[in-house]
């Protein structure tokens, strides 16, 4: 069987001598995905993207969901006083403003790196923060106006059309587990291939790296499986266009630890995909979602409405990696 080719690995890194703030929460990752989705149509042509908070709120509420289902979900949330954390952060008011600033601080200070390859095949690397810059200011009508920019070297990766179809955006917004997001982004690259089901093997160490498990936590396999892996798989299978399953490989001696995980990635049936389109739009609230995250999730922030400067940065040539994805 031929080997699957995945995406370039975008890794979160910590500068030497600085404390590790930990991976982004599921809500912070959803906010970043929303900012990308809004900027995506002009990601390579426009340097600074400008949106009002009201525009972003509408995009979150309606664009990524089916309106009738979204309204039902909003009514249900209003009835019991709960709501999605990102919805709360985009609601406006002083609390929203404070959360917005906190969330953007994370995106402005989170450093990522990835390998790159020139057209002549020579290797290299690149680093960038998730956002290059941003500003938040009250507009003439009293609404907040948010301007933000992505680093030139990061734009070609963000501009990959395979990452941001409408269904995939809905899937990402449905997750409440921080571990489900990188697992989905890795697996969906294999799920795009014609030859399915697909089998892929990785070591437990690489699995921990993929899920961005905080060093020193979930040390044994039972903890890793119970608190990170199984909840993530449950959410991926509930909301995505494919199903994940795995089996473990242990050393031959009795009672030996798990050494490798063999993944099977299988495309859902057409009927299941049709139902999924509505399921992701009318998803369960976080407290009821399958595999709810065991990692505490922070609240998100707003952003805002059109675009300005041109950027002529050329796409960076990328050599495909077996172990692709964004690990934030």
Automatic annotation (TrEMBL):
<dbReference type="InterPro" id="IPR036388">
    <property type="entry name" value="WH-like_DNA-bd_sf"/>
</dbReference>
<feature type="domain" description="Initiator Rep protein WH1">
    <location>
        <begin position="94"/>
        <end position="187"/>
    </location>
</feature>
<dbReference type="Pfam" id="PF21205">
    <property type="entry name" value="Rep3_C"/>
</dbReference>
<dbReference type="Pfam" id="PF01051">
    <property type="entry name" value="Rep3_N"/>
</dbReference>
<dbReference type="InterPro" id="IPR036390">
    <property type="entry name" value="WH_DNA-bd_sf"/>
</dbReference>
<comment type="similarity">
    <text>Belongs to the initiator RepB protein family.</text>
</comment>
<dbReference type="GO" id="GO:0006270">
    <property type="term" value="P:DNA replication initiation"/>
</dbReference>
<feature type="compositionally biased region" description="Polar residues">
    <location>
        <begin position="308"/>
        <end position="321"/>
    </location>
</feature>
<feature type="region of interest" description="Disordered">
    <location>
        <begin position="277"/>
        <end position="328"/>
    </location>
</feature>
<feature type="compositionally biased region" description="Low complexity">
    <location>
        <begin position="292"/>
        <end position="307"/>
    </location>
</feature>
<dbReference type="InterPro" id="IPR000525">
    <property type="entry name" value="Initiator_Rep_WH1"/>
</dbReference>
<protein>
    <recommendedName>
        <fullName>Initiator Rep protein WH1 domain-containing protein</fullName>
    </recommendedName>
</protein>
<dbReference type="GO" id="GO:0003887">
    <property type="term" value="F:DNA-directed DNA polymerase activity"/>
</dbReference>
């Amino acid at each position: 069987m031929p080997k699957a080719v995945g995406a370039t690995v975008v890794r979160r890194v910590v500068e030497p001598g600085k404390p590790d703030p930990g991976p982004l929460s599921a809500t912070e990752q959803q906010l970043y995905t929303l900012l990308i989705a809004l900027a995506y149509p002009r990601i390579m042509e426009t340097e600074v993207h400008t949106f009002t908070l009201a525009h972003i709120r509408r995009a979150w509420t309606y664009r990524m969901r089916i309106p009738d289902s979204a309204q039902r979900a909003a009514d249900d949330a209003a009835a019991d006083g709960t709501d999605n954390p990102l919805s709360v952060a985009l609601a406006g008011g002083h609390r929203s403003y404070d959360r917005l600033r906190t969330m953007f601080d994370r995106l402005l200070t989170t450093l990522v790196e990835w390998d790159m390859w020139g057209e002549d095949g020579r290797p290299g690397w690149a680093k960038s923060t998730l956002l290059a810059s941003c500003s938040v200011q009250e507009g003439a009508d009293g609404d907040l106006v948010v301007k933000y920019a992505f680093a030139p070297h990061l734009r070609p990766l963000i501009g990959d059309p395979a990452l941001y179809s409408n269904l995939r955006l809905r899937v990402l917004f449905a997750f409440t587990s921080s571990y489900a997001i990188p697992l989905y982004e890795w697996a969906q690259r294999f799920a795009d291939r014609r030859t399915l089901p697909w089998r892929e093997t990785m070591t437990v160490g690489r699995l921990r790296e993929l899920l961005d498990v905080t060093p020193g936590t979930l040390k044994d396999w039972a903890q890793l499986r119970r608190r990170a892996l199984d909840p993530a798989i449950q959410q991926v299978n509930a909301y995505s266009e494919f199903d994940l399953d795995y089996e473990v490989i242990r050393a031959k001696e009795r009672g030996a630890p798990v050494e490798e995980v063999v993944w099977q990635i299988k495309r859902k049936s057409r009927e299941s995909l049709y139902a999924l389109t509505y399921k992701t739009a009318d998803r369960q609230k976080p407290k009821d979602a399958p595999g709810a995250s065991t990692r505490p999730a922070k609240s998100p922030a707003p952003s805002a409405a059109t675009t300005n400067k041109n950027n002529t940065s050329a796409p960076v040539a990328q050599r495909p990696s077996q172990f692709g994805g964004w690990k934030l």
